[in-house]
Amino acid sequence: MIVLGCVGLEPWLYGRVPASVLMLGDASYVLYLFHPLAAPAVPAVLKKIGITNGLVSIAGGIAVALTISVLIHLLVERPTNRALKDVGARRPAEAAVRRTP
């Protein structure tokens, strides 16, 4: 029912979702992969500098994980996807000709 509701709302939401939200959606897979590495580093760093507030640790962990995931998406994932799409779009004969030295 949730999926059906989201699909039903898609025509109404088109063009109304902020670009920043769409960017986070695009970077969501990178976030899924890298948040276990990025988020725990924040409380450790904050503890070393003497900040032990739990809310600051949580907010900082979320901010760092989101920032790192968007950067990796923009600098690694998106260019890699474009390059792979370009290679896949070539005809096999054309790709074979380009590979020969």
Brief sketch in words of this structure:
The protein is mainly α. The protein contains six helices and no strands. Helix 3 crosses helix 5 (54-89) and helix 4 packs across helix 5.
Name some characteristics of this structure.
101 residues, mainly alpha, 6 helices
Q: What overall form do the CA principal axes indicate? A: flat
- The low-confidence parts are none
Order of H and E elements: HHHHHH
End-to-end Cα distance, whole Å, is 56 Å
Task: Please bin the fraction of helical residues.
Answer: over 70%
Return the average pLDDT rounded to an integer.
Answer: 87
Account of the protein in words:
It contains six helices and no strands. With 101 residues, the chain is an all-alpha fold. It starts with a helix and ends with a helix.
What topology emerges from the helices and strands here?
Blueprint: H1 2-13, H2 19-26, H3 28-38, H4 41-48, H5 54-89, H6 92-99
Helix pairs in contact: 3-5, 4-5
